[in-house]
Amino acid sequence: MDSSELLLKSFGSNTFIEKQNIINNGRPTPTLQDLKSKCKNNFRYFNPSYYNTNKWLSGCQKTQKLYCWPCILFSHESNTWSKYGCSDLNNYHNLKHRHEINRSHIESLITLKKFGNIRIETCLSDAYKQSIEKHNESVKNNRYVLSRLIDTTCFLAKQELSFRGHDEQVISINRGNYVELIHLMGTLDPKLSGHLSTSTVFSGLSGDI
């Protein structure tokens, strides 16, 4: 499906099977040969290699603009990357960086990653329904905690502060900005504090996260 179709008909209006097919088909990555921006006396042309370095990046052949694939599917915001399209190649890297630390973008990435992992059937026993309700309550709490972690991540990224410390053990007097900020927030947030008190492993971000 071309991105332009999803810009006219929202992803949420499709059936589950249709949504699954759209996601399985993957993000559109057209060459966009007409996408260019004037730079002094020359033109800067779109390089399709951008798709390889930015796995969320998508393009639309019809509009000749760039979009964020997860945000087209799941974001409730109407911005450059989810609806209007990016065509400013001169400021592409700055626009991309600001979008990557946007809360809505991070939530859309997570939703896309988790889509279709769990489907609840309509006919369930009472015992199973109670189990599902308990599970949903746990998921709700986990999502709340995750939202606090996302807030911390966005803050540190926006301020361009380092995440990890040299020694993140419990006995360390300085476990890095990420861990220390999370624990500071926990002193003001009972739900987050409860999570931190029961979590067996907690450290700064690493790897691809």
Task: List the main descriptive attributes of the protein structure presented here.
209 residues, mainly alpha, 2 domains, two-stranded antiparallel sheet, two-stranded antiparallel ribbon, 8% strand, flat, disordered C terminus
Task: Describe how the helices and strands are arranged.
Layout: H1 3-8, H2 16-25, E1 36-39, E2 42-45, H3 50-53, E3 57-60, E4 65-68, H4 69-74, H5 80-84, H6 92-100, H7 103-114, H8 126-158, H9 177-186, H10 190-198
Antiparallel strand pairs: 1-2, 3-4
Helix pairs in contact: 8-9, 9-10
Mean pLDDT across all amino acids: 84
How many structural domains does the protein architecture include? 2
What percent of residues adopt helix (DSSP H or I)? Answer: 40-55%
How far the N terminus sits from the C terminus, by CA atoms, comes to 29 Å
Backbone shape: flat
Largest sheet: 2 strands, antiparallel
The stretches of 5 or more residues where confidence is low (pLDDT under 50) are 203-209
CA-atom Rg in angstroms: 21 Å
In what range is the share of β-strand residues? 5-15%
What is the count of β-strands? Answer: 4
The total of helices stands at 10
What structural category do the secondary elements indicate? mainly alpha
Enumerate the strands of the largest sheet in spatial order, edge to edge or round the barrel: 1-2
Q: Helix and strand string, N-terminal first?
A: HHEEHEEHHHHHHH
